[in-house]
Design goal:
Layout lengths: L8 H6 L27 H6 L16 H14 L3 E5 L2 H12 L5 E5 L4 H13 L3 E5 L4 H7 L4 E7 L11 H11 L2 E5 L28 E5 L13 E5 L2 H13 L6 H10 L3 H20 L4 E5 L9 H8 L12 E7 L4 H10 L4 E2 L9 E5 L15 E7 L5 H16 L2
Parallel strand pairs: 2-3, 2-4, 4-5, 5-6, 10-11
Antiparallel strand pairs: 1-7, 6-7, 8-9, 9-12, 11-12
Helix pairs in contact: 3-9, 4-5, 4-8, 12-13
């Protein structure tokens, strides 16, 4: 006997029983958006498990769209488990809150992403978790600062703003020998410059056992590529560690929107092409800026004069067909004879480089920094002067070079 349909139109629209055929395949996966997930029976509701991707329970715990993105990001970075969070900073916070408790200590490189340091000095300090900053260019300094209370060490390659490249393999070796968990901010490398889970003791990469424990990634940058999505990821290879992170992820209620996941999925196939284009343009401009009389120093890991270049070459030099991989960032220290006001005028005078934070999108960006306020001690490897960071987009290098030239002529002519 055919089941009677609801008599009212409003009910029939909500409970319409048509389902499209399941055998639909296209280049891009479907976008599933849900808070509620429907179960066929009470037994299914009670037995379905949200922790292992064997089924769907609630939108916050995953949909087909987010599961696909997580798996593709694991492929990108060489991990086995991935969590999606609303931003790169949320990825950092997820790691810290999952692994640290009152009385523990976290070590952070002095040249790390500023909000990571702010989190340690703010919320973590209030929770009774201490922190210290170490010199990213001196593995001995890191080793000396590890104590029995140290439970987490953050790594960053290259360093934020000043782009020093550390001896990442030695840093991981030191932490591994002391039984301390390592977490790498891998936004700069993006899974393309080097494999964070396959490091070797000689400073290179391969199928070894020296990899980092956790890779945190601001998908806002290169995986998104459009400057229009905020998202982050936390990737691991260890199932037990992943579950610690996942349970905190659940308790914090972290999740991402289906349309944002779709945007990253659409961009991922071109990430290698875009990364190389950003990289090549940044190197051309960085080398050109080295020749400018107003410039005291150019910071870019692929330049021999840049701090940590040898470590970059050892770890990243084989990428991209042997030319190495170095993202699309470089920083310039303008000569100390120019005032902060003149450097600000230079930034204001740029027409194609726009004033704005973040990077990895199609538009070139510029930010001047007051470096002394960002470091716990002076960076003696940097020349005196005022630092400006450039994120190179996808514009023509010739136009960007002309933009830099006209702004320098106007700001520094006197």
């Amino acid at each position: 006997m055919k089941e009677a349909q609801p008599s009212q139109l409003a009910t029939r629209i909500v409970h319409h029983d048509y389902l499209p055929p399941a055998d639909f395949v296209a280049p891009q996966p479907g976008v599933f958006k849900a808070s509620t997930v429907i179960f066929p029976t009470v037994a299914a509701m009670r037995s379905r498990e949200w922790k292992d991707k064997s089924g769907y329970t609630y939108g916050l715990h995953g949909t087909p769209t987010t599961f696909i993105l997580e798996e593709r990001l694991c492929t990108l970075e060489g991990g086995l488990q991935c969590l999606l969070v609303p931003s790169g900073l949320a990825a950092i916070a997820n790691v810290a809150l999952a692994l640290l408790k009152p009385g523990d200590e976290v070590l952070i490189p002095d040249n790390a992403y500023g909000p990571n340091k702010d989190l340690a000095n703010g919320e973590l300090r209030r929770f009774g978790i201490t922190h210290a900053f170490y010199d990213a260019l001196d593995p001995a300094d890191l080793a000396a600062r590890i104590t029995p209370a140290t439970k987490l060490v953050w790594l960053e390659a290259a360093g934020s703003v000043t782009l020093e490249f550390p001896d990442l393999c030695e840093q991981v070796r030191i932490c591994r020998a002391r039984g301390v968990t390592t977490a790498l901010d891998n936004t700069w490398g993006a899974g393309l410059a080097f494999s964070p889970f396959d490091l070797l003791g000689d400073g290179t990469q391969g199928e070894g056992t020296l990899g980092v424990d956790i890779s945190a990634h601001a998908l806002t940058k290169y995986p998104s590529g459009g400057g229009d999505v905020l998202m982050g990821s936390v990737i691991t290879r260890d199932a037990g560690l992943h579950m610690k992170l996942k349970l905190t992820h659940m308790r914090l209620g972290l999740g991402v929107a289906g349309n944002d996941a779709e945007a990253v999925l659409r961009a991922l196939p071109s990430i290698g092409l875009r990364y190389r284009a950003h990289d090549e343009a940044a190197r051309q401009l960085a080398r050109w800026m080295q020749q400018q009389p107003a410039v005291a120093q150019v910071l870019h890991p692929a330049l021999e004069e840049s701090p940590g270049h040898a470590h970059w070459k050892a770890l990243c030099g084989a990428a991209q067909g042997g030319q190495g991989a170095a993202a699309g960032l470089f920083s310039v220290v303008f000569d100390a004879r120019y005032t902060q006001q003149q450097v600000d005028a230079f930034c204001d005078g740029l027409r194609l480089f726009k004033l704005g934070y973040s990077w990895g999108g199609p538009m070139s960006l510029v930010v001047p920094y007051e470096l002394p306020s960002m470091r716990s001690k002076a960076a003696t490897h940097l020349q005196p002067g005022t630092l400006v960071r450039f994120s190179v987009g996808l514009e023509a290098v010739q136009d960007l070079r002309q933009d830099l030239l006209q702004a320098m002529d106007r700001a520094f002519a006197a």
